[in-house]
Design brief:
- The protein is α+β, with helices and mostly antiparallel strands.
- The chain folds into two domains: 18-119, Alpha-Beta Plaits (2-Layer Sandwich), CATH 3.30.70; 137-210.
- It has helices at 34-44, 60-63, 65-70, 85-98, 110-119, 144-150, 160-171, 177-186, 195-210, and strands spanning 18-23, 51-54, 58-59, 77-82, 103-107.
- Strand 2 and strand 3 (58-59) form a beta hairpin.
- Helix 7 (160-171) runs antiparallel to helix 8.
- The longest helix is centred in the last third of the chain and has 16 residues, at 195-210.
Length: 211
Amino acid sequence: MTHTLHRHGSAENLQNDYIVFAIAAQTVNAKGKARVFAEFFKIIEKYNYAFCGDMKTGNEYAVGREAIRQGFRDNSIVHAVFTDKEEVARVLKELAEADLGLSIVVSGILEHADACCRKAGIQRHTIEWSLGIHGNTQKLPQDKETLEISTMCGHGMVAFSLINHMVKEIRAGRVTTAEAARELAAQCHCGVVNPERTSQLLQAMVTEYNN
């Protein structure tokens, strides 16, 4: 499964939220793959992505893009967030042609991800579905925007309290929505939070509170 699978949201606000990432089969072909992840990242960097990171090194806001470039390991998992499905299709086409020997995962609205594969001239291999959140859901935030922001980080590193704090900071005029979104995205070690979508959700929260 993937930690990018559990994003909450509406069909409307997930329209521009896609993650493309690469991983090796840890017990099968991971040995020697550090240089291959570097090749993957070189391809990714040609395209217009919103955020990136490596699970082993950190995200670009926290450690910088150069640290990511220099830090690839055989067991890396390298991510990039995109806001345009056409750009995703172009990335997948080049990755398919490069045939790096890595597993490539695309997270997003299924119909869109499937269409991207077809435009890239490839057939998707597998579909994964999230079964949702089970258990004592009363402990979850009751406003949908907080949950939508926090679930962009599949390891739960974007705290509910920090999201609410950032909304207060925006309302007080101490930070912009873009600055607040960047701060929240920086908490996601893997680099899979979508800063643009986060900014939009924060603005919706601020507008709702002001009303």
